[in-house]
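Notes to self after the Tuesday call (sharing in case useful).
The group wants a holo model before anyone commits to mutagenesis around the pocket. I volunteered. Ligand is nicotinamide-adenine-dinucleotide. Logging inputs and output together so the record is complete.
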Amino acid sequence: MTRIGFVGLGNMGLPMAVNLVKAGYAVTGFDVVPAALQAAAAAGISIADTAAGVTQGAALVITMLPNGKLVLGVYAELLPAAAPGTLFIDSSTIDVDSARAAGAQAAAAGMQALDAPVSGGVGGAADGTLTFMAGGEAAAFARAMPVLEVMGAKIIHCGGAGAGQAAKICNNMILGISMIAVGEAFVLAEKLGLSHRALFDVAATASGQCWSLTSYCPVPGPVPASPANNQYKPGFAAALMLKDLTLSQEAASSAGAATALGRHAMEIYEAFVRDGNGGTDFSGVINAIRD
Ligand code: NAD
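Result:
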């Protein structure tokens, strides 16, 4: 039986690891939070005493951590302990520069590596329907595919090391900007005496159509499953949107790209989170626009 090491058993990592167990993989996990380890053990995951411990007998190691600094710190423990040729998959959302550094350090240690961040949230992690955006060598991607297919429904090879993270933050920059655009349009419609339904019916089939409008509408009514119909409970928390917009701005300044609307969207979400809305769904930004 193939053994997989898994570091970071939080909201996303635990359900992803559980799906691997259900698919018949042996999984050894580690987290710094004891409650996460207890939940993992109850789900059939073997527990290691240290991060390095997950590499024992593992052909593959997955990390699902909060940021790039932590990923590089954990890689510094994992790489010397792992058997040569182990495949490292980092599914955390982190900055492109750290992702490239992690890939380079893994390669220098004789390992294969992919950055493979996800979209789809905790629901997608539990259902095994995440989208994976992968960066790294084609051989590493081919080797990872059967494992990624257990946790995800759509898996895209985006290019070399860091390309998965680049795709993730570019996509989420579009999402952050477009949600604000849709929110502003509904607020303007309200001031003009135009009903939500009328704007939705027109824009959903006209050139204003976008995912923020038709799949995740920020006003209650037109899209029954959107968080607007559920007191703006996440969904995708505003704090995570702010994280991704901040990463896209870091990447834009590092790469010398002009992203004026991306910067403005980040500032709007910064204010929204500062006002105590970090745990609110990101579509709730419409209420700050209205106020
Ligand atoms: P989380 O905070 O619930 O989980 C992270 C886990 O990492 C925690 O259990 C924490 O204890 C553990 N951890 C931190 N430092 C560690 C260390 N040194 N060694 C071992 N474990 C350590 O976060 P999450 O929601 O599971 O998100 C994980 C990653 O996935 C983040 O990068 C996030 O941006 C990304 N992501 C999250 C979502 C979402 O909807 N939650 C969606 C897409 C991507």
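Two things stood out.
The radius of gyration is 20 Å.
The mean pLDDT is 97.
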